[in-house]
């Protein structure tokens, strides 16, 4: 194991009149160098907060505590939550960069694309000529006509082109880690798939570590080495993608897989996960999934589970993970 980023006991909370609202709850997570980590969860599960925490970009009145360590290599290690203002600015773009949710609107409509690149380079005291060469290369790597895109205003580009231009922009300062929050949600399925395969190429070419955050488990399965499943502001399962897809140990992961259309399972077998994600001020005691879980018993109501080591590199927060496969079969009709 060679983690580039490590989160320990990381919590993000808000003080609300109704009580403390935890939107990230004691998360431990190692992100391995050069892996693609998929982070999956319903909306309101804490996905975006996980990303903001990684970048120390939680905004007031949100309160971030715990430990986040960045290990750029050569035995160096940085305490992310103790960075000075200047160090943080550097950390956020030059080490760990982020494509935000709905980021396509983050282009300034009255500036051409080139200006966005130049201003980013200047703001970080990078050599602009060298940086623009890199920008062109990145745009070409993303199958864009660099001259044409740089000369364009954002509204002159299609959604897919804009998204790719933003990915190029997020990489122009040569970060080690790219964090993407629902980067393809606004695009059609074909464009989503093509962006995923472009990301795979970029990852190899630039030795990137990628954190890919989405509500769409099958989509992330195409690119992720490991998948972490968020439920109620904590990871309930983490493991190699193949293990998660073939033999998920947590009831929620199994139900999530059954709720999403995919190639293996006919659409008539799709089952939505009944009920709704918990309110952050009122997360159920014990296992937070118990109100929605078909396997829940008294222990689940009383005792916060795990993590249990489920083998094959899987960690699962469920008392009864050994029975989840028989209780929640992945195909309803045993026609195989
Ligand atoms: Fe379900 Fe209990 Fe496992 Fe929670 S701990 S997921 S309620 S079986
Ligand atoms: Mg979100």
Automatic annotation (TrEMBL):
Q: Domain of life here?
A: Archaea
Q: Where in or outside the cell is it found? A: Cell membrane
Arranged from A to Z, the UniProt key words for this protein are: ATP-binding, Cell membrane, Membrane, Nucleotide-binding, Transport
Does Ribonucleoprotein show up as a keyword for this record?
A: no
Q: Name one GO molecular function term.
A: ATP binding
Q: Which GO cellular component terms, listed alphabetically, does the Swiss-Prot or TrEMBL entry include?
A: plasma membrane
Residues in ABC transporter domain copies: 5-257
Q: What is its main location?
A: membrane
Indicate what this protein is called per its UniProt record. Answer: ABC transporter ATP-binding protein
Which stretch of the full sequence is covered here?
A: 15 to 350 of 743
């Amino acid at each position: 194991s060679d983690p580039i980023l490590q989160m320990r006991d990381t919590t993000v909370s808000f003080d609300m009149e109704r009580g403390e609202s935890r939107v990230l709850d004691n998360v431990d997570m190692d992100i391995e160098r050069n892996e693609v980590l998929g982070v999956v969860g319903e909306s309101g599960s804490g996905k975006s907060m996980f990303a903001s925490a990684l970048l120390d970009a939680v905004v007031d009145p949100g309160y971030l505590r715990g430990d986040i360590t960045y290990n750029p290599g050569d035995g160096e290690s940085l305490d992310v939550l103790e960075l000075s203002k200047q160090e943080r600015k550097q950390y956020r773009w030059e080490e760990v960069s982020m494509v935000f949710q709905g980021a396509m609107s983050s282009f300034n409509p009255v500036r051409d694309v080139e200006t966005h690149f130049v201003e980013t380079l200047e703001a970080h005291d990078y050599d602009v000529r060298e940086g623009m060469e890199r920008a062109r290369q990145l745009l070409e790597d993303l199958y864009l006509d660099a001259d044409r895109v740089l000369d364009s205003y954002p509204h002159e580009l299609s959604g897919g082109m804009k998204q790719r231009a933003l990915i190029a922009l997020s990489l122009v300062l040569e970060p080690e880690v790219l964090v993407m929050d629902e980067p393809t949600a606004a695009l059609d399925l074909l464009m989503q798939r093509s962006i995923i395969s472009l990301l795979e190429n970029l990852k190899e070419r630039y030795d990137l570590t990628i954190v890919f955050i989405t509500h769409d488990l099958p989509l992330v399965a195409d690119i992720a080495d490991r998948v972490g499943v968020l439920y109620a502001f904590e990871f309930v399962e983490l493991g190699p993608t193949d293990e998660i897809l073939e033999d998920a140990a947590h009831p929620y992961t199994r139900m999530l897989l059954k709720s999403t259309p995919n190639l293996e399972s006919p659409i008539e077998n799709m089952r939505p996960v009944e009920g709704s994600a918990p309110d952050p001020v009122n997360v159920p005691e014990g296992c937070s999934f118990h109100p929605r879980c078909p396997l829940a018993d008294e222990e689940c109501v009383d005792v916060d589970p795990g993590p249990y080591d489920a083998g094959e590199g899987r960690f699962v927060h469920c008392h009864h993970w050994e029975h989840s496969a028989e209780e929640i079969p992945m195909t309803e009709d045993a026609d195989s």
